[in-house]
Design a protein that fits this description.
The complex is a heterodimer of chains A (about 375) and B (about 90).
Chain A lengths: L6 E5 L28 H14 L3 E5 L9 H11 L2 E6 L6 H10 L3 E5 L5 H8 L4 H13 L4 E7 L7 H11 L3 E6 L4 H5 L1 H4 L3 H18 L4 E5 L19 E4 L5 E2 L20 H7 L1 H4 L17 H4 L4 H8 L15 H13 L15 H10 L1
Parallel strand pairs in A: 1-2, 1-8, 2-3, 3-4, 4-5, 5-6, 6-7
Antiparallel strand pairs in A: 8-9
Helix pairs in contact in A: 1-2, 2-3
Chain B lengths: L9 E3 L4 E5 L4 E6 L2 E5 L1 H9 L6 H12 L5 H13 L3 E3 L2
Antiparallel strand pairs in B: 1-5, 2-3, 3-4
Classes of the chains: A alpha/beta (about 375), B alpha+beta (about 90).
Chain lengths: ~375, ~90
């Protein structure tokens, strides 16, 4: 096993002009825990420590990373270190000039989200009129010669648009489209009842993906992130706990993935107090579930443990209340019934199309209210 | 994917970048959301893929450098595997 990380997700800020109800940011993103953002100098030090630790791939994310005025400086630092840098953005008010400046600074790859295949639905899901900016930024990205990924989170309100979304990515000349079925953490878990699609809706979307993959071949890579609630076995979350990934959050806490901060039974350390190397090697958050020594049954004696690593620790904590049990998505878990109940609920409720959205938008006011009341 | 002619010039796709991985003492090819680990000969082949030299010239350079012969099948196989991943392009 390679003991050093390859990937760093740098969440530069949790501020975001969009309000997507499935946001993977913490529910309390607007609270005091994340208020004191790292400075330019602190981020540059973190990037240097990341490279020395073995990281090769850097994602600049958020929130909305383009809200950081020092983004060009961070990109230039990453490039001088030899990191391969991807910008993960909503593209809201992202101009061609800014993209050109980022290109000049050494940015390698641009990922732009879209919430639906047409302006009306995309803007409704985003909670902010942003579709027009996204389309303009897609074209600017291609004109500047960046490889482009179109990022889509799929859920009940847009899963019927998979074909239109793939055609959009194709017409833009994108390299990749990521069709990420909603994973239920953060705001997505809070809004699960409004977002979880039916089995039939997912089956139709998957048929389209297979047909379009056959049609497009290598011209457009279609990434399909599995809807794990509808699977019999858990995903190999992050390729195993603390094996390849690190996430640095806006105020410097370091997490093994971008959802792990919700696990209240872990202690998270901060780049303001420790080096990234120390955190990787010694922090409670990174060592607690590394390897398979922590595993209970049914994982401990299961041959699948080397494939799925017991699934997701965050999901175990959020659904079962204990991060050290088998992912409840697993059909061998004694807690699978908790997942089945949510899936059955989605099957029972009527089609979502004519309904007003029954979700809470991701916004600072809602975040502060949720942080107060839990 | 059809086999490239000996007279076509391979080059890295602009989305891909050769990078030294000092921590693991190896070369890697980085691209969006992925990487390919290279052994020493793979890195040496890619360093010669400038979009000007054709496959024959690359093979000849390597054979001269290592005072050997018969490298063409290995070079072509290596490049074709990367071309299938969209990381190597042939021609301008």
């Amino acid at each position: 096993m390679d003991p050093k990380p390859l990937w760093l997700l740098a969440e530069l800020t949790y501020k975001c002009p969009l309000q997507c109800p499935y946001c993977s940011n913490p529910l309390d993103f607007a609270g005091p825990r994340f208020a004191r953002e790292l400075s330019t100098a602190e981020w540059c030090r973190v990037l240097g420590e990341a490279k020395a630790l073995g990281i090769l791939q850097l994602g600049l994310s958020g929130g909305e990373p383009t809200l950081r005025r020092d983004l060009e400086e961070l990109v230039a630092t990453a490039r001088s270190l030899g990191l391969y840098t991807s910008l993960i953005t909503s593209a809201y008010r992202l101009t061609k000039q800014r993209l050109a400046d980022l290109k000049a600074a050494g940015l390698d790859h641009v990922q732009i989200s879209i919430q639906g295949a047409d302006a009306a639905l995309s803007d409704e899901i985003a909670g902010t009129a942003s579709y027009r900016d996204k389309i303009a930024a897609y074209h600017a990205t291609r004109e500047l010669g960046f490889p482009l990924t179109v990022n889509v989170v799929l859920h009940r309100r847009n899963v019927h648009q998979v074909e239109a979304l793939i055609r959009l990515a194709e017409s833009l000349g994108a390299e990749r489209i990521e069709l990420a079925n909603t994973q239920f953490y953060g705001w997505a878990l809070h809004n699960r009842a409004a977002l979880l699609p039916t089995r039939a809706e997912l089956a139709r979307a998957w048929d389209v993906v297979q047909r379009e993959r056959a049609r497009l071949g290598p011209r457009l890579e279609i990434v399909w992130v599995l809807p794990d609630y509808h699977e019999p076995f858990p995903k190999p979350c992050m390729g195993g706990w603390a094996r390849a990934y690190m996430t640095v959050t806006p105020a410097g806490e370091v997490w093994p993935c971008h959802a792990a901060g919700r696990i209240t039974t872990l202690r998270f350390d901060n780049v303001r107090d420790h080096s990234l190397d120390w955190i990787w090697e010694h922090s409670d958050a990174f060592t607690r579930f590394r390897g398979d020594g922590w595993m209970p049954e049914p994982c401990r004696s299961c041959p699948r443990k080397t494939q799925d690593f017991g699934g997701c620790r965050c999901q175990a904590f959020l659904v079962v209340g204990d991060a050290a049990v088998t992912d409840p998505v697993c059909s061998l878990s004694p807690h699978r019934g908790l997942i089945d109940r949510a899936v059955a609920e989605a099957e029972r409720s009527p089609g979502a199309q004519p309904e007003p959205p029954a979700w809470t938008y991701r916004a600072a006011r809602a975040s502060r209210r949720l942080a107060r009341h839990g | 994917m059809s086999s490239p002619a000996r007279s076509t010039a391979p080059r890295l796709h602009p989305k891909a970048r050769l990078q030294r991985d000092e921590v693991r003492r190896r070369d890697v090819l980085l691209y969006p959301e992925g990487l390919v680990t290279l052994n020493a000969s793979g890195a040496e082949i890619l360093a010669l893929c400038d979009g000007v030299r054709d496959v024959s010239a690359i093979v000849a350079t390597l054979e001269r450098r290592h005072q050997t012969s018969g490298l063409e099948p290995d070079v072509v196989g290596f490049l074709e595997a990367l071309a299938a991943k969209g990381l190597v392009l042939y021609g301008p």
